[in-house]
Design a protein that fits this description.
119 residues; single chain; alpha+beta; two-stranded antiparallel sheet; 4-stranded mixed sheet
Length: 119
C-alpha cells in the first residue's frame, strides 16, 4: 500500500519501500541500535541484520484514515538502557517522517527482537 497525495501540479505516490528506507535510516542513527531485523525472524534468519536495501522487511507501515502507524523490529546493544533507546527511536522516527513527508504519525511501535553484544 502506498501513500497518495494530490497537489495543484499533479499527484504524488510514495511507496512503502521509500518510507521504510527513510525510517530505517533514522532508526540506525539512534544510539544503542545494532541493526534491524525481519518481523519474520525465524523464516528469514534469526541472526541476519538487515542492510539498507532490505529495511522494508523490518518496517511495517499501516495506513489509517488520519495518518500512519509504524511498526519497527530492531536489535539493540547489550548494556544500554532499553527504554531510553526505544524512546529515542520513537521520537526520531516520528520527527523524520512528519518533517520529510508531511504525514501524521499516529504511533511508532518498536519490537526488540534481540540484544547483541557490541564488539
Amino acid at each position: 500500500m502506498s501513500i497518495k497525495r494530490k497537489t495543484t501540479l499533479g499527484s504524488i505516490k510514495i511507496s512503502d519501500d521509500a518510507i521504510a528506507t527513510l525510517t530505517g535510516g533514522a532508526v540506525i542513527e539512534c544510539y544503542g541500535v545494532v541493526g534491524m531485523t525481519s518481523q519474520k525472524m525465524f523464516k528469514d534468519g534469526f541472526n541476519e541484520l538487515l542492510k539498507r536495501e532490505n529495511y522494508s522487511k523490518g518496517v511495517i507501515i499501516k495506513n489509517k484514515d488520519n495518518g500512519i502507524e509504524v511498526d519497527l523490529y530492531v536489535v539493540i546493544g547489550y548494556g544500554v538502557k532499553v527504554t531510553e533507546v526505544i524512546n529515542e527511536i520513537q521520537k526520531r522516527v516520528k520527527y523524520t517522517l512528519e518533517k520529510a513527508l508531511e504525514l501524521d504519525v499516529l504511533s511508532v511501535n518498536v519490537y526488540v527482537q534481540g540484544i547483541k553484544v557490541i564488539e
